[in-house]
Amino acid sequence: MADPSYDLVVIGAGHGGYVAAIRAAQLGMNVAVVESRERLGGTCHNIGCIPSKALLVSSLLYAEAGYGLAAHGIAAQGVSFDLAAMMMRKDRIVDQNTKGVAFLFKKHKITHIRGAARIAATGKVEVVDAAGATHTVQATRILIATGSVPATLPGIAIDEERIVSSEGALKLASVPKRLVVIGAGYIGLELGSVWARLGSEVTVVEYLDRILPGMDTEVATLAQRLFVRQGMSFRLGTKLTAAKASKSEMTLTVEPAAGSAAEQVATDVVLVAVGRKPNTEGLGLEALGVERDPKGFIVVNNAFATNVQGVYAIGDCVAGPMLAHKASEDGVACVETIAGRVGHVDYNTVPGVVYTHPEIASVGKTEQALKDEGVEYSVGKFPFTATPRAPTATPTAS
């Protein structure tokens, strides 16, 4: 029996892959998507953006009910929370979203192939299913949309119980008394906020001398003051060098990033949130000769084509902001270009949002970036507090 053949085989069903697949189907292509997870939607829907936002909302509502309503003249005594119920709500939302993607696949007649993919040759994808059997599909074009995975630290083994990644931090069975977050980017601050609101003593350790690298320095400084008011503490310019577990606690060894005497920090759970890296292992890229840069990102041209004929890549596994909406735009631009249309993404206008309280957003280059590039610019500032509407709408759990 001949191997099934498709105009386009997409590897990965995250925001980049599934949006690209849908757009390709709309443009008349016969499309298959290979995904190793049981559910579609990738990291964002399953273990990233969506579940974290669900817990952020639940934890903020609890914080408001617990100590933020009195200023509004609302009395609430004996407020408590049910962590298991919060997790169930989060899981229901994840299930709803992933089923939504599956519905869109069915609507657009996209073939979903469950298994781990490897590009065996140009136009040939091998898929190992859950039973260990290998199947082969043929493709006129192959699109790599495998996303990213959490970055790790040397000598720090993540077990998803006491030393957790962002995935494990979304599944904790109880609120840790003490939580140390390694990394003051958006993932560390969002998940740190969740557990701080629910009662953890949260300490954020950051190698740089500031939080939110990549965002405006002044905004980051103001945000840090608010996070401190919310109960989080910060150790900037500090690095984690070791983590040792005993029966009762974790002992971390930290030291100044610039170098100096080390010290010990005790905690119950450690969240390693030092960024993400391209998820390209096991795809057969080395044997195929697909070019990657020193950081592991797949090198593509303006049409998202790699150096290997018929192989394309988008999203977190290529350079650029590692954001779900950026991956989606990559996917649309890529398949529209393949279809003979004009696909384009302006990376200068990709917005970034940190879903803390308050939420923090940015778009375009920062003031520091413009200084570094020698670009003349003007600065405009306006405080929200000067807007009459703002004080009436501001929650008080901060």
Précis, in short:
The protein has 3 domains: 5-150 and 277-349, FAD/NAD(P)-binding domain, CATH 3.50.50; 163-274, FAD/NAD(P)-binding domain (3-Layer(bba) Sandwich), CATH 3.50.50; 352-393, no CATH class.
List keywords for this structure.
11 helices; 19 strands; 398 residues; FAD/NAD(P)-binding domain; 3 domains; alpha/beta; five-stranded parallel beta sheet; 24% strand
Could you explain how this protein is built, in words?
The structure is a single chain. By secondary structure, the chain is of the alpha/beta class. It contains 11 helices and 19 strands. Strand 12 and strand 13 (250-256) form a beta hairpin. Helix 1 packs parallel to helix 9, helix 3 (49-67) runs antiparallel to helix 4 and helix 3 runs parallel beside helix 6 (186-197). The protein is globular.
